[in-house]
Write a structure and sequence with these properties.
Helix content: 25-40%
Number of domains: 2
Structural class: alpha/beta
Strand order of the largest sheet: 8-14-13-12-9-10-11-15
Number of strands: 17
Strand content: 15-25%
Radius of gyration: 21 Å
Largest sheet: 8 strands, mixed
Shape: globular
CATH architecture of the largest domain: 2-Layer Sandwich
CATH class of the largest domain: Alpha Beta
Length: 456
């Protein structure tokens, strides 16, 4: 997809600001709501959302929802989602826990096949977060549905997070991707009735259909007619939508895109993430940027703030795992800052130089790089870039810099680990010499353990 020029964009640097827009748009929905999320928390915010969606469905609004099925088992909202379906709302849970467990005699030992399926269930996630109202309004970023997101900026332990609100031409690009994903899940629902079906093989066979955008445009033609009133009211901000589908498209769109942008950075790179666990290629690219005189700043959680992440930061593992990446990063001149507020830092914004901003669901982590389905927006506009950069400066006031003289680094250096097999999916011209060498020597592993629970 290309940059779209006729757009307006609003920066939403907190759950409070995002949810004010969310509730207003949903209340005013007239024809359609298409909603994508990684997780629904079982709390008051999600209940309010579901009650509102049921009310809108009764009034004739057509509602479709895509979500990560396995993660939402852990939040115990299954009955609530079933209630939505009983009220005429279409939902699909991506990577259902109980799909695709068939054993094929031709593929060897059953236990080995089962383990491969388990690994895929743990790694393949639908991590995107956005929704579209009436084919005109888009909210997209890093914020899921739940109290800890909605009360960011209000309650002390709520999370610091970011969304953006967009109207204009760009909305139809995201709409197209949503409908492609929804159609694919509908096709999988039929295909999985065959007891021998597995999702990876289905995705390969479905790929020609998935990539045929015109089929979707023809089938849902009402969503792709030019709305002159909307376009005339939009601004002139250039925005690009990037979908990242490592399994459904077998490509690393955002990983390749970000590597290319980092490679060409001239002045500054500011990047935030709840837990910094970058693939080695990112660390090497950022280190090279520092050598060129680029200031590289990463914001992540402290041990204290990470305790408000899911299941207490996976019982402390998440922070401890992140620190195994710090030594190399800090020693190569990359500045790492830890969030000191009690609520977690969950924002995933990226600023490069003076006119590049990306906001979305993509993390600085192996999971996003190689496995998770992600959605990001890229804004090419100096004024908007300055807004997001200034928010980084505000956030840094609530951070503490990791100082190599005082920080107790773990003995384990994460970058000494064997590379994941999927590093070969990175575009060949972007690979560093050290990674090319490891690939040539076969120093790769299909599913390193550290990738298994790299979710957020």
């Amino acid at each position: 997809m290309d940059f779209r020029e006729n757009n307006q964009v609003e920066f939403l640097p907190s759950g409070q600001s995002s949810y004010e827009v969310r509730w207003r748009l949903l209340q005013n929905a007239q024809s359609s709501i298409h909603l994508v999320t990684f997780s629904f928390m079982k709390d008051g915010t999600t209940k309010k959302l579901f009650d509102l969606l049921k009310e809108k469905a009764k009034s004739g609004v057509k509602i479709k929802i895509l979500y990560d099925e396995i993660v939402n088992r852990t939040t115990f909202v299954g009955k609530w989602i079933k209630d939505l379906e009983e009220n005429g709302i279409e939902t699909f849970g991506y990577n259902n826990l109980f799909d695709g467990w068939s054993i094929h005699k031709s593929e060897g030992r059953p236990l080995k096949q089962v383990m491969a399926i388990v690994k895929l269930k743990l790694k393949q996630h639908f991590h995107e977060k956005y929704f579209i109202v009436d084919n005109e309004h888009l909210v997209i970023g890093g914020i899921n549905w739940g109290d800890k997101y909605a009360y960011g900026g209000v309650r002390p332990k709520a999370w610091r997070d970011t969304d953006i609100y967009i109207t204009g031409e760009l909305v139809q690009d995201v709409q197209l991707q949503f409908l492609k994903d929804f159609e694919m899940q509908q096709a999988w629902k039929i295909q999985k009735k065959n007891p021998k079906s597995r999702y990876p093989q289905f995705a390969i066979s479905y790929l020609p259909i998935y990539k045929n955008n015109q089929n979707i445009i023809d089938k849902y033609s009402s969503f792709f007619r030019n709305n002159n009133d909307t376009l005339n009211s939009a601004g002139k901000i250039k925005i690009l939508y990037k979908a990242h589908k490592p399994y459904d498209e077998n490509e690393l769109n955002l990983t390749n895109f970000f590597l290319e942008k980092i490679k060409n950075a001239k002045k500054r790179i500011f990047w935030g993430c709840h837990g910094i666990r970058p693939p080695r290629i990112y660390a090497e690219y950022l280190a090279e940027a520092v050598k060129r005189g680029v200031r590289v700043v990463l914001i992540t959680n402290s041990q204290k703030s990470s305790r408000t992440l899911m299941v207490s930061g996976l019982l402390g593992w998440m922070y401890w795992e992140c620190t195994k990446y710090f030594k190399y990063i800090v020693e190569h001149g990359i500045e790492v800052y830890e969030w000191q507020k009690p609520g977690a830092f969950h924002s995933k914004s990226l600023v490069i130089d003076d006119d590049f901003v990306s906001v979305g669901s993509y993390n600085i982590a192996n999971g996003s790089a190689f496995h998770h389905s992600e959605s990001n927006i890229v804004v090419q506009d100096e004024h908007f870039c300055e807004k997001v950069y200034n928010q980084f400066l505000i956030d840094l006031q609530d951070c503490k810099k990791v100082d190599s003289a005082n920080f107790k680094f773990p003995r384990v250096n994460a970058f000494d680990r064997i590379l994941p097999e999927r590093v070969k999916m990175i575009r060949a011209d972007l690979l560093t010499e050290s990674i090319k060498k490891d690939i040539e020597l076969g120093n790769l592993k299909d599913a390193p353990f550290y990738e298994f629970i790299d979710i957020s």
